[in-house]
Amino acid sequence: MLPMPLMIILASQLVTRTIGRLGPRPIIVFGAAVGASGLLWLSAITPGGSYWSHVFGPLAVMGFGMGTTMVSMVSAATAGVPIRLAGLASGLINTGRQIGAAVGLAAVTTIATHHTEGRLRHGVPQPEALTSGYSLGLFIGGCVFAVGVPVAFLLPRLRRPQPAASEVLAPMRPVDGDQQAVTSAAEV
């Protein structure tokens, strides 16, 4: 599983440098397409496949797609939100993503388990039955991920609004020599 988190980190760093120029929509489209292709590639696993030949590459591709998509979704979700509510909006999108991942994983696992059990009942050897179940679950997950491509095209062009004067923190001012006082956001 190591290539996936490493690629998520790499992709998220690259996205933070380009999202200001491109906006979130094209990056979400790209990330969803890449992530879906990684999952669909992983669904082609075989019982005799090795980690390096059948798992490493798809996990790296999927991780890169996830990293680009996650950062861009948070940017899109918070784009029209006043600065004072940005934390709340970001928290809501992250909570939604976590709940969606949990529900999606539970659904895909249930389908994969049901398919595996059916294959076992028909006399298919366990390695083939398990691989068939995982393959079906990963394929369905890849298809669901791919739905993000056309959905992202529906996003409006988003630009972050300029903060209102009341939302901007007052500048720091010197007090008693080396000390400086900062006006807190609550005092503004």
From TrEMBL:
Residue ranges occupied by any Major facilitator superfamily (MFS) profile domain in the UniProt entry: 1-160
TM segment ranges: 27-44, 64-87, 99-116, 136-155
Keywords: Cell membrane, Membrane, Transmembrane, Transmembrane helix, Transport
Protein's organism: Candidatus Frankia alpina
UniProt xrefs under Pfam families: MFS_1 (PF07690)
GO function terms (MF aspect): transmembrane transporter activity
Main localisation: membrane
GO CC list: plasma membrane
Signal peptide (residue range): none
Subcellular location as annotated: Cell membrane
InterPro entries registered for this protein in UniProt: MFS, MFS_dom, MFS_trans_sf
Membrane topology field: Multi-pass membrane protein
Protein name, UniProt field: MFS transporter
